[in-house]
UniProtKB/TrEMBL annotation:
Record keywords: Membrane, Transmembrane, Transmembrane helix
Sequence intervals crossing the membrane: 41-60, 84-110, 116-134
Source species of the chain: Comamonas jiangduensis
This protein's name: DUF6691 family protein
Pfam assignment, any one: DUF6691
Length: 138
């Protein structure tokens, strides 16, 4: 049952990415190009995602287990530190340069475009390096 729900959730997420245009790097870059061909429509997508997320996290905080009975695992840290700000800056720079963030990039692997596969490979390499760095620093 958990695998079916995960699959359906992924399909709904992917469909939302396609319908909103988040899977199109040019649309994302146009949203970030305030002085040029600015496309504000992604602001509405982000606002909708924030609203849904706010409702979901508010509901989840009140629960000990998920709907499927799994333990609820929510972030506990509220610190805004150097690690968080560095990660946010790197994420934003990558998103702005490539027009992809992880979800849309994985979805776009199906296009078989070389630049998408290179982006995902670089993203995974960055994750491995960050994990190794975190273990070394601990």
């Amino acid at each position: 049952m958990i695998a079916i729900v995960a699959l359906l959730s992924g399909l709904v997420f992917g469909l939302g990415l396609i319908l909103s245009g988040m899977g199109n790097p040019a649309k994302v870059q146009n949203f970030l190009d305030i002085g040029g061909t600015w496309d504000p429509s992604l602001g509405l997508v982000m606002g909708g995602a924030i609203a849904v997320g706010l409702l979901a996290f508010t509901w989840a905080k009140r629960r000990k287990t998920s709907v499927l009975g799994e333990p609820m695992q929510l972030p506990t840290s509220t610190a805004v530190d150097r690690q968080l700000l560095t990660g946010a800056a790197l994420f934003g720079a990558g998103w702005g340069l490539a027009g992809f963030c992880p979800g849309p990039a994985v979805m776009n692997l199906a296009t078989l475009r070389v630049e998408v596969w290179l982006f995902v490979a670089a993203m995974l390499a960055g994750m491995v390096l960050q994990h190794a760095w975190a273990k070394r620093s601990a």
